[in-house]
Amino acid sequence: MELAEVIRALRDELESAVEAGAGEALRFELGPVEVEVSVAIVAGASAEVKPRFVVVSLGASGNVERTTTQRIKLTLTPREGRTGRTPMVAGTAGERER
């Protein structure tokens, strides 16, 4: 799985949490999200192929030409796309000012 796919899946999960919490009395402000993954920097035999980050799972093995595995930690700060505000994982964005 490529790193972009992991971030896309995280975004989908957070959006689901916001939607699932609509109308709840208790809400949580979504602060910085820390994600730590092990990635393999994969480079093929051809110089034309650019290196890419592939998230590896424990016990995974592959048949690649060259692989360097590193752990990286990302700190992501979610913002609502339309307003730029910090999202809430319960309730709706319009209720935030209460």
Written overview of the protein:
This protein has 98 residues and is an alpha+beta fold. The protein has one domain (3-95). It contains 1 helix and 3 strands; from the N terminus they run H-E-E-E. Strands 2-1-3 form a 3-stranded antiparallel β-sheet, with no helix packed on it. The radius of gyration is 18 Å and the shape is elongated. The protein starts with a helix and ends in a 22-residue tail after the last strand.
Strand proportion, as a percent range, falls in 25-35%
| Helix proportion range | 10-25%
SSE string: HEEE
Strand adjacency order, main sheet: 2-1-3
Overall SS class: alpha+beta
Low-confidence stretches: none
Overall structural domain count = 1
Average pLDDT for all residues:
75
Q: What is the 3D form?
A: elongated
Q: CA-to-CA gap between the ends?
A: 41 Å
The Rg value, from CA coordinates, equals 18 Å
Beta strand count: 3
The main pleated sheet reads as: 3 strands, antiparallel
Give a quick rundown of the structure.
With 98 residues, this protein is of the alpha+beta class.
